[in-house]
Amino acid sequence: MRSLLNLVVLLVTALPALASELDMSPPLALDPAGGGAAGDLYQAWLSPHQEGGEEEDTPRIVPDMFQSTAPSTPRDARPSRGHGTLLFARDYSRAWVHLAIEGVEIDQIAMLHIHCGKPGQLGPIIIDFGIEHDVTAVFEDGVFATEITNADITAVTDHGHGLVGAVTAGCPIIPAVPTDKVKTIAGLAHIAAEGELYFNLHTFGQMYFGDIRGQLKPVR
To answer: Which candidate, 53, 82, 86, places its Cα nearest to that of 217?
Structure first.
């Protein structure tokens, strides 16, 4: 009974302070329509030196779809480079990607992804630009720009099938729960904030690790 009375007293004494706080002006000008504006920005410089290994290190058990079909070139001999940005809308309804590359034979581009993973670590795919785009055609002038939404994230898991798809398609929100995969741009932004997103451009000679890779870092 005494504890109940103490709670009542606490509530009664707190009411005036609560009322005064509700009467305060908001700390920022409220603008519900402003969520579509540009928010957090990340960038990456892509190079062969960020790849997790040489193509000759590809495990033999890797499925054919991730095996090179053209001669491979050691990373120190590859002139390929890139610079990309990932810009999020404030309300995480969408994001925008811009990527410029040079030193890459355009007709040798096989795949372009955003993966989740720590630097040097191979991670699963969270955005596969090849689902909606011809990745060879879009780089005809060396520059690619596109908008991504929640649908681009769920498309990756929808296209993943069997054991290979379970391992390579989609990124878990919490690594300890691999089946609970990110489905939203907000989830993509969370992984970016953790420093665990990277661009990876694959060529036919560098299929498993990729030709150039760039870890995304915040632009302060």
So the answer is: 86
Query: What CA–CA distance (Å, rounded) separates 212 from 204?
Result: 12
Query: In what side-by-side order are the strands of the sheet with 81-89?
Result: 143-148, 95-102, 81-89, 38-46, 217-218
Q: Which residue has the higher pLDDT, 17 or 136?
A: 136
Query: Which residue has tokens 């898991």?
Result: 157
Nearest to 42 by CA among 202, 182, 193, 147: 193
> Cα dist. 93→13, 26, 39, 123, 147 in Å?
42, 24, 11, 24, 11
Model confidence pLDDT, tens digit, residues 15-52: 555 556 667 888 888 888 888 888 999 999 999 999 99
**Buried/exposed code over 122-159 (b: 16+ C-beta within 10 A; e: otherwise):** bbbbbbbbbeeeebeebbeeeebeeebebebbebbbee
